[in-house]
Model the fold of this input.
Amino acid sequence: MRVLFVYDSISPVGGGSQLAIFTWLKNLNQKKIETKLLTGNISQKVEKRILDKLILNPSLNLSFFYPHFHSSIFLNSETRKKILSFFPQIIHLHEPSILSFFILKLAKKNKIKTLISFHTNFNEAKSHTSWFFLLFKKLITSYQFYLLRESEFIAAPSNYYQKLLQKEGFKKIFILPYPIKNQFFIENKKPILTIPKIFKLITVSRLSAEKRIDFLIEMMSYLSNNFQLTIVGDGVDRKFLEKKVKELSLNSKIIFTGWIRNEVLPRFLKQHHLFVSASSFETFGISYIESLACGLPLIVFDYPVSREIVPKEMAIFIKELDPKKWAEELMRIKNEPKKYLEMKKQIFNNYQKILKYKEDYSTKILINIYKKILNEK
Done:
């Protein structure tokens, strides 16, 4: 089996979809499946085994629009030759780029089957500071749906988004959960069932408005100094958020770390006690499962994807976006620790419920999807 992945702009601060494709590529290679990655830009270090499989197409640096953003505006003849000499049986596209348009045309002309993953609901994208999405998100959303219609098959990371796409008239949609790296999972360990003096909260996210980090900052203003919040990630709104922390005099309670390498993140998560997220933007919620795998209970916004992905006994789901109510829930956990300790127990007593998200299982599902695509006449 020969599969070409298409991801136009590899960023040093890439999100869940970028992390997923590198994990899938690594695992597919281990399964002796021939792969190549077509991209217009590599602005981060990648493993040598991935580097050896790259097909690079010329791209423009558009960082003045959006940090670390590059885009290929054409598919040059040399790139076409490299693709056709590899002659993939399946082309798996991962973002609504201009490059994806040319690749879909090339695939159709050469009768190569195509699969496109729905990673991001751009219609929900927001920013406090960047006019890029505010100005272009409707155009990007329309273009994304155009590409979905041009592809023969679609992969969605959750049942919720499969149904959403079906309502839009799309068919042949597979469910493909994201691969959570094995390093996050704990083997043969029992939880430490004690309540710490300082309750360390953590959130892991791209720093843009739809993730509602500003809401978590406001929440911290209602909490005592016994609580600390670590914000892991980077993005267009970082300066805006740092300014907000300063204005609310929360510098002693909130830490910005920037991006932390995925290899280091499990160890870092385990230094904290509870994961918090007010986002309703997730199509899957990779950071939810990474945190649970490390033994951290969750407090998350109550919306369809969080309910679908997170086992209910391992989290507290809050529907209202009221920072005071979230703070009150955290104070209740701190003052009456039985609920927190029970969630910790439930994670480890029902650990098998999150094992289904491990990278090898996700890769197995992906391979089965490829087989079904190849068998379809």
